[in-house]
Amino acid sequence: MVKQATSKQRIVVNVTASADWRRRPVGIIRVERELVKQLRRLHPTRIEPVLLDRQSGEWKLTGAPLFDEICSDEWVLADNPDDVPQALKKPLAPFKPSPTDKFVTVGSDWSFDIPDRVMRLYGQHKALVAALYDLIPLLFPEFTPGPEFFDQFHRHYRDVAKYAQSVFSISEHSKQDLLEFWQRAGLSGPLPRVEVVPLAGLPRKAALPQLSAAERAQLHSLCHAGEYVMLVSTLEPRKNHQLMLDIWRQLHLERGAHCPRLIFVGMRGWGAENMIQQMGQMNATRDGKIEWLQGVGDALLMHLYANALFAVLPSHYEGWGLAATEAASFGKVCVTSNNSALSEATGGLSPSHHPLDLPAWEREIRRLIDEPEYRQGLETRIVNGFVQRTWDDFGREFSTKLL
């Protein structure tokens, strides 16, 4: 049951990140969009979407028409994603806070001093419901685009401790990282409660979704070329794609045409230029044994999971690991790193290894390729033991714990 609240208690939702993003949603943007849709469904009369006007520093009401546009699929499938839509060029009404508000913000808030901005709206009343995905910029700053992220996260989560009433965490592991950070920082006084609400993923239904003609042709081409292994993630150093390239180099040298394909699915991220150049020049890539797909929609991604041999996610650290959850939803093994929150993402049902232990990863991948009985036994364990969460489940649990 979702908790009931007085009709006057608004749920103010910061949709600035979603308004800014005009491409296929990934990572934090995807979570924000799914949460906004759930809050809209569960609390249609209480939700009040707002945007931060970065020029004036003021919060603005989106109004229903603009909110409808931001929530639509068309918003994130724009032909010219860098163009500012007409709806954002129109003047927006100012937002006026109420002392009973809950102010929910789950975007990339560390870059915009959101806790301080919300505190200036509400004063001593703690209205802020903040989000925690991970503390990677503090724990492993080398896996961020620049040194400013360390300072931003350090300031942001100290401010969250001072100004938030509660924090939504995507995993128990991230929650413990945050509590330890606050302890090391010597923060005193009452701290916000941290509630874990695990993420959902792509829904596995009785029938796979319909594809467009172009998607059907692409899927046919991919499946016709033989067995494949998937790594679904933005291409960036933390995701450790390099480990898979090193393993596939050896597999291709040994097996040639009989080597399964390695398919990367994800957008180009920061710091991946050298790896992408290397990948493009590899003989395995020239022979079609390594492929990189970008701009893949949810429907095609579901078909790719369903037809994959298995998946891998060798990240150096994760706040969750949505690709591992999605693979399990389709009954597929996803070999992950044995760190951070990845065991939560798989339910502990898939093999895991240290992200730097290339021999262990290579042995595991060879076994999954060469021993169907082993792979099928793991798949049976996943099908019988993995508890699939929907975004409806996520929305209800978020509402119960935080609103």
TrEMBL record:
SUPFAM superfamilies: UDP-Glycosyltransferase/glycogen phosphorylase. Residues 227-346 form the Glycosyl transferase family domain. The keyword Transferase applies. Its EC number is 2.4.1.-. GO terms for molecular function: glycosyltransferase activity. Keywords: Glycosyltransferase, Transferase. It is an enzyme of class 2 (transferase). This is Possible glycosyltransferase WbpX.
